[in-house]
Amino acid sequence: MSKGQVLVLGSNATQLGLRSGSTATVGQYLNETAVPALALLDAGYDIVLATPNGTKPHIDAGSDTKDHFGGDEAAYQRAKDFFASHPAMNDVRTLKSVVDEGLDGFVGVFVPGGHAPIVDLMQDRDAGTILRHFHAAAKPTALLCHGPVVVVAALDDAPAFRKALEEGDDAGAADLARDWIYSGYRMTVFSASEEKIAEEQVLKGELYFDMEKALRSAGGDVSVTDKNFASNVVVDRELITGQNPASDRAMADALIEALDRAAA
């Protein structure tokens, strides 16, 4: 018997604009999607995947490697098979449909990373509605790597906040975030120093803003590790955030622990 349904918010973004005017091809990270999702299934929970337009997320090519699975070929292949063929990864809902049908039946929510969520989910109105529901109900809310920046979708005008970040308008961004529901929460996110490496080696260009600055501008109490790509998970009330791809299993464990505690 299922312990309950966890809602997974996926991204449909495949292109990310860079400061140079060029774009980079992006997507969700395979391990950040599959490792927590499989851990939830193994722990007895069901998962429901929803995206802005109701189509399956694109997996970032840079994540399609066993390197993100500790070199474990079997774990890598299990993740690939899961994403390709598991019903939960193919019966995709729209964010709007899950909002319209009601969120009370979900016991938790999870947002994977990769650069894609900072394009669409970060400023998606339905994602904001979902986050506000889980916050008000104090239900476990877990976000990984770049996923934590999606919490700004809960702002009254997330697109304007994102635009202020792109324009370097720190005062304007802070003003737009005055009533943010996560103000003062402790959290982590893909660090500015990790982003520099990603910009140089993967994106081949500079982002308009880094994730640390985005969350601090909104009022988050952001902390990251001194060592790049070291696992780091921060838990504050219902909010569970993981810093980078290496945090996938630790974040999943923290989420499952919170879900089990809430059920008990």
UniProtKB/TrEMBL annotation:
Gene3D superfamilies assigned to the protein according to its UniProt record, in alphabetical order: 3.40.50.880
Give the Gene Ontology MF terms in alphabetical order: glyoxalase III activity; transferase activity
GO BP terms: methylglyoxal catabolic process to D-lactate via S-lactoyl-glutathione
Quick check: keyword Amino-acid biosynthesis in the entry? no
Which InterPro entries does UniProt cross-reference here?
Class_I_gatase-like, DJ-1/PfpI, Prot/Nucl_acid_deglycase
One of its Pfam families is: DJ-1_PfpI
The answer to whether keyword Signal applies is no
Q: Which domain of life is it from?
A: Bacteria
Q: Where is the DJ-1/PfpI domain?
A: 34-154
The UniProt entry, under PANTHER family, shows: DJ-1_PFPI DOMAIN-CONTAINING PROTEIN, PROTEIN/NUCLEIC ACID DEGLYCASE DJ-1-RELATED
| Protein name per its UniProtKB record | Glutamine amidotransferase
Q: Which organism is it from?
A: Sphingobium cloacae
